[in-house]
Write a structure and sequence with these properties.
The protein is of the alpha/beta class. The protein folds into three domains: about 170 residues, Ribosomal Protein S5, domain 2, CATH 3.30.230; about 220 residues, 3-Layer(aba) Sandwich (Rossmann fold), CATH 3.40.50.300; about 90 residues, Helicase, Ruva Protein, domain 3. Helices cover about 40% and strands about 15% of the residues. It is built from 22 helices and 20 strands. β6 and β7 form a beta hairpin. The longest helix is centred in the C-terminal third of the chain and has 20 residues.
């Protein structure tokens, strides 16, 4: 019969084989099982006894195939028990026909759900099988193609052939959300976040404590488009494997992850034994917020560089590679110095310049270079904080984001740009800059010593700004704003000896 094991963020089918033969009585499990699966022997024995069945005094051997794949988790309890029942002729073979079985057994024979149900359901669908598991909700119903799910409460119910259907997932429609209208002032920061949402750009915000960096970042998902059906299934699968709630994902809200700065490399990127998704994969199709970026361990931050470039995480182990998706929008915030007031015009900084430099260097130039935008966020005035900003609500900002994305989609449809990777040549072609704009961009890049990556990312931001204004071509004004947003300051063009 068929079951499955979790590897990374996906479920892999596993064939459960059993033989009852003469020989020294025993209960053996082979096929690279982990410690939890070895403990299944005691759970299976106790569950069968609770149903009035005694194990035969013979040799029982379970094989989990393929043998070269490491098997993990307690989800093999139920399939091993029913496979043994079928081998002993205690249940009809039709019960297991065309089914994938997953579930943990309690000592009284009750079947418990396990993490990764969405992944198991998708795996069963790919294998052309129906899923048999503990009572649960059907998370994928009416969202995407999925397998038929049967539920069973206990081994006794399985004996009697009492199978049920999963209940519809109780999705809340009136969940409370935050709104950009709660944040007064910060016109430039809101504009930058709007551009980031329109083009999926990473953004770094630097400013003193209490300036509103975290408040702004937390409201970014409210202006992003809803998840598509494919994205819902993809993000729900990852969250399900990690044992996280999928309520907001099923409502179409993009994931927002904000790990504490004490997170380990395995916690942020993924890993462990067995390998599980990290925060970058849990933020797939959504936003990863790293608050107080310099407080994160340096090796943890450097581990972000590859996922930011590739949109996936590859973890190498002795038994092979595990690839997990990690396409996320990175939003980070930082104080400019240990005391937090370096550059503040209202409160004097007490840090020596050496400490300011050391604090900012914790992030590392290669990681900073991968942010599309780096902006300063200063405290708002008293009047702005008290009054809020009803004119800049999340709904109005989201409408502009959706319009920009729709314009970009139509622009791609009119050309073959969307059918090939976004190389330097294709990005330049998308921008359609005239001679004067190209000369201006060249001088700005040279004056500010932009790297090749910085040039590409600045041009990509400029293209997004043009999309927000529904312009087919990128102009000098779009380039000027993109450079200003990248170099943290309104005088960045003058620093290069140029003006817009």
């Amino acid at each position: 019969m068929t079951s499955a094991t979790i590897r990374g963020s996906e479920a892999i089918p596993v064939r459960v084989e059993v033989i009852v033969s003469s020989g020294m009585p025993g209960f053996t499990i082979v096929g690279m099982p982990d410690t939890v699966i070895h403990e299944s022997r005691e759970r299976v024995r106790a569950a069968l006894r609770s149903c009035g069945m005694r194990l035969p005094g013979e040799k029982i051997v379970f094989n989990l195939a393929p043998s070269y794949v490491r098997k993990t988790g307690s989800g093999f309890d139920f399939p091993m028990a029913v496979a043994l029942l079928a081998a002993l002729g205690q249940v009809p073979g039709d019960f297991l026909h065309n089914k994938m079985v997953v579930g943990e057994l309690s000592l009284d024979g009750t079947i418990r759900p396990v993490n990764g149900l969405v992944a198991f359901q998708m795996c069963a669908f790919e294998q052309g099988l129906e899923l048999l598991c503990a009572p649960t909700y059907d998370a994928l119903k009416n969202i995407t193609k999925a397998c038929i799910v049967h539920t069973c409460t206990s081994l006794q119910s399985f004996f009697e052939g009492e199978f049920g259907l999963p209940a519809a997932y109780p999705v809340e429609t009136d969940a409370a959300t935050v709104d950009f209208s709660d944040v007064g002032g910060h016109v430039q920061a809101k504009r930058a976040l709007q551009i980031a949402a329109a083009g999926n750009h990473g953004i770094m915000m630097m400013g003193p404590p209490g300036s509103g960096k975290t408040m702004l970042a937390m409201r970014l998902p409210t202006i992003l488009p809803e998840l598509t059906a494919h994205e819902i299934a993809e993000s729900a699968r990852i969250a399900s494997v990690a044992g996280e709630s999928i309520d907001s994902i099923l409502r179409g809200v993009r994931p927002f992850r904000s790990p504490h700065h004490s997170a380990t490399l395995a916690g942020l990127i993924g890993g462990g034994n067995p390998i599980r998704p990290g925060e970058v994969s849990l933020a797939h199709n959504g936003v990863l917020m790293l608050d107080e970026l310099p407080e994160f361990s340096r090796n943890v931050l450097q581990g972000l560089r590859q996922p930011m470039e590739d949109g996936k995480v590859t973890i190498t182990r002795a038994d092979g590679n595990v690839v997990m998706p990690a396409r996320f929008m990175l939003v980070a915030s930082s104080n400019p110095c240990p005391c937090g007031y370096f550059g503040d015009k209202q409160k004097e900084c007490t840090c020596p310049i050496s400490k300011v430099s050391a604090y900012q260097s914790r992030i590392g130039g290669p990681l900073i270079d991968r942010f599309d935008m780096c902006i300063d966020v200063w405290r708002s005035d008293f009047e702005d904080v008290v009054a809020g900003d009803a004119a800049s609500s999340s709904n109005s900002m989201r409408e502009a984001v959706l319009a920009a994305r729709e314009f970009a989609y139509r622009r791609f449809a009119r050309s073959d740009a969307g059918s090939r990777p976004r190389s330097v040549a294709s990005l330049v072609e998308e921008c359609g800059m005239d001679g004067a704009t190209m000369s201006f961009f060249k001088e700005v890049s040279s004056g500010n010593v932009l790297s090749g990556r910085a040039i590409m990312r600045t041009l990509s931001v400029a293209r997004t700004i043009a999309d927000m204004e529904l312009c087919e071509k990128v102009s000098v004004e779009h380039i000027a704003e993109a450079v200003t947003l990248r170099l943290r300051g309104s005088d960045s063009l003058e620093a290069g000896g140029l003006t817009a």
